[in-house]
Amino acid sequence: MNRKLMEDSFRLLQAEMSPIAGIQLHLSPAECEQLFSVLERHDLEYDRKVHLLGIYIILTVAAERHMECAPHHPDLTRNILDGDYLYSFYLQLAVKYRELDLVAYLAPSIKKMQIARSNGDFADQNPAAGIEEFLIQEQRPQSRTSKAI
Amino acid sequence: MKLHEALNIDLDEINHEIQNIVARDKDVPKKSQLAKSILELTGSGGKRLRPLMVIVGSRFGRKPSGRRTLQLSAAAEFIHAASLIHDDIIDNAELRRGTPALHTKTGVLSAVHIGNYMSARVIELLSKYTGDKNRYVHDLSSVATAQLCLGEYQQMEHAYDYNLTFDEYLEKSRNKTAMLMATCLRVGALSTESPEDVAGLLYNFGEALGMSFQIQDDLLDFTQSADVLGKPAGSDLRNGQVTLPVLFALQDPELAPIIRTIGPASSEEEVAHVLALINRSDALARTEEVSQDYLDQAAAIIQRLSSYPAHADLETLLQYFAGRDR
């Protein structure tokens, strides 16, 4: 099941990303494991799981590419552009698949991660935890979602 | 008269809003390197063209502009400034607006993440506008920024590519420069609930202005001194950027083989020689004509919006862009 989910997510991302960027997304099943566990704990439609995994992959790869921005690195330019493109693509995808409430929920933690990294604090920050917190909050009866508006 | 004065826009209010984006972030200590670096960069000048375009766009709406328009105008500058931080790393530029580029002070990895913070902060601020009808507030951070990256990829892909076509050049310029300006006018208009067709016309106007702006920028690299440019004249050619004057010059059978010799290993003398040859050809005049074509397209759009009093502000923008090189 998880393998199909991964394949469908990667297929979606490669179809939606501009070929001009030429980004090849590589993430192992092990790297997706934390989000698989989250998705299994929540009763979500399959398509939404594909979108959420797609968002998780983009955020993970964007952060990875920007962590590889060492001076004189032969791929410095590409790493900067890939990270920049993926962060903007993340928002495009969220708008298209109506996940802007998730974007709003994750925004402070993504921002804090950038602050920490600009200060030399490179502790691992996995977006799966934030996505899980959002899903729990979304399932509370009083929560608002863009789908409901 | 300065552009913001001609447009009757309070630039201090915009500058204050830009500074507040970081100054009011409770997650950023006031004396941190991040806060200081961003305040220095955003306070170091710049024409604020993009914020001004947001405000002008807002004058075409059915409602008066308010807090949201002001935030969007500041966001436009913030996004632009973030892109400059990353551009300077990519270009290995030491100076920005006459002072050391941010990455030379903080290191590359830190600077990359300071730029990221700026983008993430904009998303955080604008996320408070929820609901389908407000999705446009993210256009600056999503579509326009993605297109900007695509323009950079295209520029990287075509370095020293003397077989670049005119269409490829125009597409790269549209992505790299014009679409952000177009989006500024459009989101400004939507922030005051303008009709969608008017927002679309403003987008087209901004795109035409942006194209002319980029082409003029390419021309300035040939015609202005290093002092005016803030970088050595001829930097584009030296860095392998095949701009419109070069494309026109390549159509000259005598010039083409000489231009094609320019590569990453070319000496300063070789580059200077080719620059002089291009300057003496008709390439610059032909480039100017293309720029003027885009300004004419923009002027035609103003005519279609002439029932709006704010069309006079579009005329002011047009005149500013037309006179930018003189």
Automatic annotation (TrEMBL), chain A:
Name-wise, this protein is: Uncharacterized protein
From TrEMBL, chain B:
Q: Which GO terms describe its biological process?
A: isoprenoid biosynthetic process
Q: Note the SUPFAM superfamilies from the entry.
A: Terpenoid synthases
Q: Which GO terms describe its molecular function?
A: metal ion binding; prenyltransferase activity
Keywords from the UniProt entry: Magnesium, Metal-binding, Transferase
Which cofactors are reported in the record for this sequence?
Mg(2+)
Xref: Pfam families: polyprenyl_synt
Among InterPro entries, the record links this protein to: Isoprenoid_synthase_dom_sf, Polyprenyl_synt, Polyprenyl_synt_CS
The family classification in the record reads: Belongs to the FPP/GGPP synthase family.
Instruction: Identify this protein by name.
Output: Heptaprenyl diphosphate synthase
Native species of this protein? Paenibacillus jilunlii
